[in-house]
Design brief:
By secondary structure, the protein is an alpha/beta fold. The chain has ten helices and 14 strands. Helices cover 33% and strands 20% of the residues. The protein is globular and about 60 Å long. The structure holds zinc ion (ZN). Zinc ion binds next to loops.
Length: 305
């Protein structure tokens, strides 16, 4: 992803090179198609690029969970019109990361009400930096900021369902929400679940290894054997798969914690191959095993502030 700060006084040459960069950045979305996957009656998962979108449709209007990237808003809107003739009334951001909030400004300026945890608005209001990806994110334009924020929880009474939104503390970030469509028996877990792959836990944004496990446990406590679970990334899932994934994470974190207790260096922890038995199943995704172990180790041993 490319974020460009335009400042005054740029030379024409620099402007041309910036224009090329902007065009190239747009190019990376050119071939992205939005896929619509039914999770339950009236509830869908939309995929494209970035975090999986949750969608509730019905008589009261469209309720969205996350909105990917700004260049995709038109395509997301077009996919929504295939399943609803109503406008997007609300968008709930599961956390501040740009691959979940990039459509906020487009939606906010067209009348959608944006809702998120208090810390999401705080983090979106200022420039941010994520060390692991060496990624700068400029502050969100005012039209893209959440206009309703909450602390512990908020409930929507929409489309014949109760949509329970709960904050989970210091998990993937310090502003995560999990979304439970109670009647439909669907949960959008945000980035507390990367199905089929190792997760990113953002220590720079208040995330923590232990909080992450606790957040998964909260999702599991809401789920039964028939619950459809929409992960922040990866294919649509269920309680059984999430349980196995949680156990994998717990095993790896405990392995690293034991090594850290023995004052092992990162190199020593990596040499002990904490992920070895899981790499075949989960190592081919968003981050590889080496980066994953480094991230968990740093979250355990460093003050990220
Ligand atoms: Zn995220």
């Amino acid at each position: 992803m490319q974020n460009l700060h335009l400042t005054t006084g740029l030379s024409i040459i620099l402007s041309v090179s910036l224009l090329v960069s902007v065009v190239m950045a747009d190019d990376s979305f050119d071939n992205i198609e939005i896929q619509t996957i039914k999770a339950a009656d009236g509830i869908y998962m939309l995929t494209g690029k970035g975090g999986n979108i949750g969608l509730s449709t019905g008589a009261d209007g469209v309720f969205l969970v996350d909105d990917q990237f700004a260049p995709l808003t038109d395509r997301i809107q077009a996919a929504i019109t295939q399943v609803s003739d109503k406008p997007v009334k609300f968008v709930l951001n599961t956390h501040w990361h740009p691959d979940h909030t990039g459509g906020n400004e487009n939606l906010g300026s067209s009348g959608t009400v944006i809702i998120a945890h208090d810390n999401v608005r705080k983090r979106l209001s200022v420039d941010s930096f994520i060390e692991m990806f060496n990624m700068q994110s400029p502050a969100m334009a005012p039209a893209g900021l959440p206009v309703i924020t909450f602390g512990d929880a908020v409930t929507f009474h929409l489309n014949g369902d109760e949509i329970l939104v709960r904050h989970v503390m210091n998990a993937h970030t310090d502003g995560d929400a999990i979304v439970h469509f109670k009647q439909a028996n669907v949960i959008h877990a945000g980035d507390t679940y990367f199905s089929g792959m190792y997760p990113f836990i953002d220590g720079n944004s208040g995330g923590s290894n232990d909080g992450y496990i606790q957040a998964i446990d909260q999702v599991l406590a809401l789920a039964d054997d028939k619950t459809v679970i929409i992960p922040g990334h990866g294919p649509i899932s269920n309680k059984q798969e999430l349980t196995a994934w949680r156990d994998m994470l717990k095993t790896i974190i405990e392995h690293i914690r034991t090594k850290v207790g023995e004052s092992a260096s990162l190199e020593q922890v990596q040499a002990s191959m904490p992920t070895r038995t899981f790499d075949e199943k989960y190592g081919g995704g968003f981050i590889n095993n080496e980066t994953f172990v480094k991230m968990l180790y740093q979250n355990m041993t460093q003050d990220p502030s």
